[in-house]
Amino acid sequence: MTRRVQITKGILWFITGLAAAVTVVRFTRGLGATTVLSDTTPWGLWVGFDVMGGVALAAGGFVIGAIAHVFRRQRYHHAVRPAILTALLGYAAVAVGLLYDLGLPWNIWHPIIFWNPHSPLFEVAWCVMLYLTVLFLEFLPVFLERTRFQGLYRTLLKLQLPLIILGISISTLHQSSLGTLLLIMPFRLHPLWYTPHLPELFFVSAICLGLVMVIFESSVTAWLYERKPRMEMLSGLARFAAGGLAFYLAFRFLDLWHRGNLPLAFENTFEARLFWVEIAMSALVPLVLFLIPKVRHSHTGVFVAASLGVAGFLLNRVDASGLAQVWATGTDYFPAWTEFAVSFGIVSFFALIYLFIQEHFPVEKEIADEEERWRQRQLFVLPRFDRLSQVWLGDRTFASRRVYSLLFVVAAVLGLTLTPWRPLVEASPVERARGGEVLRVGFPLGTVSFPHADHVKRLGKESCGTCHHLHEPGDVGTPCTDCHRDLYLPTRIFDHVRHVRKLGGNAACARCHPAGAPPEAETAEKCSGCHRKDMMARNETVTRFESLDAPGYRESAHTLCIGCHRKEAENPAVGKPDLFRCATCHHSVVPHGEAVLEASLAGVRDQRPSRTR
Amino acid sequence: MIQNPCILNDVTRCIGCEECVAACKRINGLPQEDPPPRVGRSRDGLSATRWTSILRRPGGINVRKQCRHCNQPACVSVCPVGALQKTPEGPVVYDKSVCMGCRYCMMACPYGIPHYEWSSVNPSIRKCILCLEKLRRGEIDRPACVAACPKEATSFGTREAMLAEARRRMAAEPGRYLPHIWGEHEFGGTSVLYISNVDLSFLAWESPEAVGEGPLPERTWNALRKVPYEFLGMGAFMTAAWWVIDRRMRLEREAGSGGDGEGGTEEGADR
Predict the structure, then answer these.
(1) What is the pTM for the complete model shown?
(2) Dihedral sign for Cα atoms in the order A289, A291, A292, A297
(3) Could you say which residues from 396 to 455 on chain A have a Cβ atom under 8 Å away from some Cβ of chain B?
C-alpha cells in the first residue's frame, strides 16, 4: 500500500465520519435541521449532486460496455471492470442518497407496488432498481473468479453480452428520464437550460460524462497505486470524448439558437455567467484539451481535462435541478455544511468500498495481485516493542487502520457538536414603533394598526402597566421591541454576567440561588423578587416573569391583545362584537407599507428575462 | 356532493379580513399560530399550517391564494407513487400512507402550493383539499373558507356554474373587471377561478402566457410515452451492431488463419 493510498483513505474516512454524525441528526431530527431546503427550494444538493450527479457519473458503465463488448474495441477491455464497478457503486450511492433526501425513507420501496407511469420519477425509480440488479450480475464474475463457484462464473460470463445490452437500454431510458424530470417545470428552470429536448441533452451529456469519468478514474487509480497508466487506452477514450463533447456543444447551442434564447447567454445576469462557467468546464475546455495530441498523450493532461469535465457536468446537473431555478423563486439557496458533508460523505464511503474491492478482487488484476503479495508478506508481522527507542513498531496496516478509526471518530464527534439540532428558522427582527398608529411587523401580514393614543384615552393613564409590564432599569414605558426583538423567536433577556458583576462576584451567588439547591435557573429567585419597581405586573396575561427568555413578538402581542379584545367584544355595552377578529388590527391600510411590499416583490421580478418557448 | 366543485374568487370584493384563513385552520385542525418561518420560506404566506392566505397588493387589492385544484394537475402527474390523486369529483387530495416524501410535487406545481413539514421526522405534504371529506359526508355544503367569507368574495358551485357566474358579473359591471377569468385556461384550466381588476399572473411562478398555457403533464408525457420504443430500439440497435461487427471480425479471422477461430472470443477478450 502506497503512502498516497493511505493519505487518500484517511481523508475519505474523515469525511465519512462527518457524514455519519450528520446522519444521526438527519434521522432523528428530520430534514429541517440538516438542510436549508425550503418550500420554495424543495430540491437541493442531495437531489442535484447525489441523485442527478450520481446517476450521470455512473454512465461510464454502459458507455464502456458498449465500446468494448458491442463495438468490440479490444483495447478498452481493461476499462470495463472498473467502469462497471463505478457504475454499481454509483447507483448504490444514489439509492443511499435518496434515503437521506426522501422525507419518508422507509417508503422508498413504494414504487414497486404503487404505480404511476405518468411520472418520470417512477420510471427513474424502476430503472435504478433494474439497473442495479443488472450491474450486480455484470460484476459478480469478478467476485467469483477466484472462488470455487466456477460453474456460476462461467454461466455469468456467457450472459455478459445480453446483460450489457440490457444495461445499455435501461441506461438510455433513465439517463434521459432525468431530463424529462425537469420538463414539467418550464416556470422554474431558466430558458438557458429549459428545452423540450432536455431528455436527449441529458442522454448525450451522460455519454460524455461517462467517458471523462472513466478517464478520470483510471488516471486517479494509476496515480494512487503508482502504476503506469494505460496511455494508449486513455488517449483513445479522450478521442471518443472529444467527439462526444463536440456533439454535445453543437446540440446545446443549436437548440438555444433555434429557440431564440441564445441572446440570453450574453446578458449580464447570474444565469448567463453560470451558463458560461458550466459550458467552459464541462465541454469547451476539455474539448480543446482533448484535441491537442500532446495533452491527449500525457497522463497529467488527460487527468486535468477529465477532472474539469467531471466537475463541469456535475455542475450542469446541480444547475438544472437548483441553481438555474433561483431566478424564478427569488430565494437564494446555498447548501448548509451538513448537506455538503452528507453528499461528499456518501461519495467518500463508496470510494473506500471501491478501493477495497480494487485491492481484494481482480478488478484490475495488477493492483489486487500486488496487494495480495503485500498482505501475505505482512501477515505474521505483529507489532513489536523496541526496547532501545521505547516504542511499539507496528506493521503499517495495523497502524493505518488505527489512524483511520481515529480520523473517523474525531470527525464524527466534530460533526455531532457542530450540527444544529433544531430546524433552521429565519430571523424576523421587529421594528420599533415610533409613535404612529401602525406597527410594522413581518410579511405577509404586513402592518398592524395600533392606535396608541386611542388605547391610552380608552383605558386611562394608570393602565400603562397592562402593556408596558416590564421596564429596563431606570426607564419608563420601555417599548415592547426592546425585549421581544424577533417576531417569532424568543429573546434572551437575562444577563447572568451582568448580575454577577453588579452583585459582587461569586460571593453573591446566594442572593439568587438558595443554599442547598443546585444553582439552576429553575430554583433561582424570580426576577420580580428584586425588580419590584421595574416590574409592573398588573396584567394577569403576562405570566412569564420567571423566564430567562422573552417570547417572540407575535406570541406576546397576541396573548396580550386578543384576551382583552375578546373580553371587550363579548361586552354588549362596548358594541363591537368583531373586535377580536384578525382584521381588526391586521390590514394594510398604509400606503407606505404597500410600497415596501411592492419593492420587495419587484426586486424579485425585475431581474427576469423575457422569454420565448 | 356536486361534481367538479369549483371556487370563484372575486378580487374586487375581498376586504382581506382573513376570516377564510381562520376558518380553514379551524376545520382542518391546524394551529392558529403558525410556527416560526423557515429560512427561504415562500413569500405568499402559505405554509404547512396555512393552506390559504391573503396576498396584499398595492392599491388595497387583496388576493386569496390556495390550491387551484387544476383540471390536469402537475403534482398528480409527477407523483411517482400516486400519493396525490385527483378524485372523481375533482379536488386533488393527498394520501400520507403512500407518500415517500420526494417533494417532486412541490417542484412541479406552477403555483407553489404543496408545502412540507420541514421540522418533522415523519413529514407530510400539506395543502388545501377543498374540505373534500366533509363535503362528501354532507357535513358541510361548501368549503369552510367560502362559508366564512362575509363579503361573498369567494363563492362555491360547479365549475360550469362558476364560469357562468363570472361572466354574468363581468357583463353586469364591465368597468369593474379585467376581461379575463384567471384559471379558465391556464395550464389546462383550474377549479379555483379568479376575476379581478388587476393582473393576477403573479399567482404562478411565471405567468402562464410566457411559458405556454397548455397542461403541464403533457410535456413529460410526450417524452415518457416513447419509453418502450426507446428501450426496444436501443436494444435492437445494439444487438444488430454486435452481430454485424462480430460477423465481420470472424470472417476476417477465418480469412487470416484459414477458418479456425470459433468460440471463446468473448472470454478471451475479457481476461
Answers:
(1) 0.85
(2) positive
(3) 423-426, 428, 443-446
